[in-house]
Amino acid sequence: GWAGGYPEIVKENELFERYYRELGIVPAGEWDAFMAALREPLPATLRITGYRSHAREILHCLKEKYFRELQDLEVDGQKVEMPQSLSWYPEELAWHTNLSRKILRKSPQLEKFHQFLVSETECGNISRQEAVSMIPPLLLDVSPHHKILDMCAAPGSKTAQLIEMLHADMSVPFPKGFVIANDVDNKRCYLLVHQAKRLNSPCIMVVNHDASSIPNLQIDVDGRKEILFYDRILCDVPCSGDGTMRKNIDVWKKWTTQNSLQLHGLQLRIATRGVEQLAEGGRMVYSTCSLNPIENEAVIASLLEKSQGALELADVSSELPGLKRMPGITKWKVMLKDGQWFEEWKDVPSNRQTQIRPTMFPVKDEEKLKTMNLERCLRILPHHQNTGGFFVAVLIKKSPMPWNKRQPKVQQKFPQKPGDTEVAATNSDNGSDCVTEEPILAENEDSKKMQELQNSDTEQSKKERVCGPPPSKKMKLFGFKEDPFVFLPEDDPLFLPIQKFYALDSSFPKMNLLTRTQEGKKRQLYMVSKELRNVLLNNSEKMKVINTGIKVWSRNSDGEQFGCAFRLAQEGIYTLYPFIHARIVNVCIEDVKILLTQENPFLSKFSSETQKKVKDMAMGSIVLKYDPDPEKPDDLQCPIVLCGWQGKTSLRAFVPKNERLHYLRMMGVEVFKAKRKVEELENKTEEEVQHMLAQTEERMDVEDKEHDLVTKMEAEIGEESSQSPVENSAMEIENKIEDLDQSSKNANCHESQESKDTGASHVKD
């Protein structure tokens, strides 16, 4: 509606229609419905984080409050339908509406619902994710002990699902499994970090590699080095994205068959590298947001053919009941962007053989084609369930790939010369279409390779417990230089006061604590699982790690005088809590409301029980624990653990703004801000609120660095904008919290989370 604005994109593409009509991927009589669906905006969908103890409460809040308020509402002449759960998603944890994301963002009538979604997304309790994008992680069939690789992970919505599945049992703070999330784009890796950090897991590592040549990693197993093979691999490859036309309308004018022809080779190389790193009996899900068989069935057929029986397509027809799907196709043709068709490789003229490759054509041998079971692939069509278009194939690895027949479960050794040290060798780090079954090295190459590995080992011994970025001689460093990951030595004097102050259990895995500084004062302590520690320590020379670990303690200069220089961090409190035996204060529901709505309340405002508990407790960081009372079903029925600080006369919670709002919503407290005005909980006038908000917004500008990064990146890749709580120290948190009870006070300086200006590439969900 802007005068002189951008012209509206015409949702027509003759070549697209001609191509897919000819291929027959849409059932007879459904073409008009298929095209009509593509021209409609994509409806908004959301997924509740399933492993959180608060999932039931959020679901109840959604159904009983926010969804009810949408009934009989009309927006821009369109009647708002009640949101419906996705029938195929387990436990009613995914929902869709008939509202487009644009309407949801812009409509005043929906502002309250939209703010709820934004706030809960920032807390990590809800993910606004396209419905079809939720399918691949579900079909991976993840268990908490699985080692998982996400090969092309950014922007991270599927990675978040995988993390949730690892933490299916919330009583286990450190699952045995982990997720290594990779992306080739250094800048998009930071969006991936942002997404993963919302879930506060010690079992996620973000790395930056080309997925088609992601290196073999080693782990220590009972004192010997073994190659790491993954139990589950998600291979959601870069694609032409013609299944995303409903949200990325640029595809309408840019679509051509050339996109698929150019991407096919890369997709096949990434998938090949994936199956090489898959453990025997493991499962890999290959997926694209494209409908094109050149990017889908052609890649799978080529992979199956060269695997010589090592791989098979899994029959997942009984999984996700309620999901409408089309079977994979077995016949297709290849078309150039000028509209010229080819049915077989032999028909392709020599001057076109660089654009079109033999692997793009279907298998002609009927027997071989039959054994491939390509019909076991899934294609999701937009008009069947009001979604985007999508393709999924589930592969099972039955035996080593034929070119890796000696796939090592144990180390392989090079020939030794007198005085040489025994060195383990890995398979080639590069997945390639042209691979020999048994690569043979000349003697001088053996010596060279052996020397490199010895140098690597020597370097590693120098840097014991230190994992930094790989040296430039081994890999060209690009993007932002990362700080090293330094594990705390067992005898580090830093840990003893912490252990004593919080009475940590003897089972606390202190060897898993790390910092990001090699020299100088350690400001933050992070924690990873034992398994990720193993990966970090054994692969610092070959892996570019962007981020791992959750923050569990932050240095607080005021704390040193009270016996401990480190305060607890809310981000890692649910991981730490099972090991803490001191400084825990159990609070009632009314105390929780005071803690979350008042900035620095006096002790006299709390219940007499709470006052008694803290009376003889030393000043400093504390744990505030709320346990639900089954005899009061109207109260919040899920436990809450908060980080707090006990002063001389006051008690306060150090919880990020959106997490505060989340807990207050779950307790039935109204926290809606209408047009950036806070509706005060205790009868404050609108003028007071505006004055308070003006002061607060000035203070909150300092955290916009990370928010600007995420907003910019998500706008470019078509994701909803969301921001996460920024890390702050104990005396700094007031810079972040929007005071819901009293006028704000002067704020201290704070450290903002590291961020980088970024861009994005490739169409991904």
Helix and strand topology:
Elements: H1 14-23, H2 31-39, E1 43-48, H3 55-69, E2 74-75, E3 78-79, E4 84-85, E5 94-100, H4 101-106, H5 111-123, E6 126-127, H6 135-140, E7 147-150, H7 157-166, E8 178-182, H8 186-197, E9 204-207, E10 218-221, E11 224-227, E12 230-236, H9 250-254, H10 257-276, E13 278-288, H11 297-307, E14 311-313, E15 326-327, E16 334-335, E17 341-342, H12 366-372, E18 378-380, H13 382-385, E19 390-397, E20 412-413, E21 424-425, H14 443-462, E22 466-467, E23 485-487, H15 495-501, E24 513-515, E25 524-527, H16 530-538, E26 545-548, E27 550-555, E28 566-568, H17 573-576, E29 584-586, H18 589-597, H19 608-615, E30 620-626, E31 640-646, E32 651-653, H20 657-666, E33 673-674, E34 677-678, H21 686-700, H22 704-717
Parallel strand pairs: 7-8, 7-12, 8-9, 12-13, 29-30
Antiparallel strand pairs: 1-5, 1-6, 2-3, 4-5, 9-26, 10-11, 13-19, 14-19, 15-18, 16-17, 18-19, 20-21, 22-23, 23-24, 24-25, 25-27, 27-28, 30-31, 31-32, 33-34
Helix pairs in contact: 5-20, 10-11
Record keyword descriptors for this entry.
RCMT_NCL1, Rossmann fold, 765 residues, disordered C terminus, globular, alpha+beta, tRNA (cytosine(34)-C(5))-methyltransferase
